[in-house]
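ok new one. same drill as before - structure tokens go in, u give me an amino acid for every spot. 127 of them this time. try not to just spam alanines like last time pls lmao
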């Protein structure tokens, strides 16, 4: 367990975090501190607790929006996976149909070739 000193709303706090997470915790605290500073610039001195609560609510609002967006994107991704599967199935069906058509055409060509060879070879047209 590591400890990091962070500054929030001008006050120092000693925070514990997992080893290796120190930089992330400092970055989070800096972002929160910037948000409080922005609110202070916008609304003036309206009280430390109120500024902190407003910053927390703004952060929560962004998190909620991000979670809704993630959910929406996950649903869209699932729908696209379904479309991809359906398209792959259709492609297999079309591929089989094309292969069958080519085989049938090859059979007709083979039969026509045999008829032509018999006709040329014997001099008498069949059919």
């Amino acid at each position: 367990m590591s400890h990091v000193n962070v500054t929030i709303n001008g006050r120092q706090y000693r925070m514990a975090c997992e080893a290796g997470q120190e930089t992330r915790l400092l970055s989070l605290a800096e972002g929160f501190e910037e948000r409080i500073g922005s609110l202070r610039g916008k609304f003036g001195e309206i009280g430390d607790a109120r500024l902190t609560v407003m910053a927390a609510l703004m952060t929560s609002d962004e998190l909620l929006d991000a979670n809704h967006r993630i959910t929406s994107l996950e649903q869209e991704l699932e729908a696209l996976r379904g479309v991809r599967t359906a398209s792959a199935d259709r492609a297999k069906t079309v591929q089989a149909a094309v292969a069958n058509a080519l085989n049938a055409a090859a059979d007709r060509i083979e039969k026509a070739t045999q008829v032509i060879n018999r006709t040329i070879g014997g001099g008498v047209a069949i059919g």
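The chain has one domain: 2-122. and btw Residues 2-122 form one domain.
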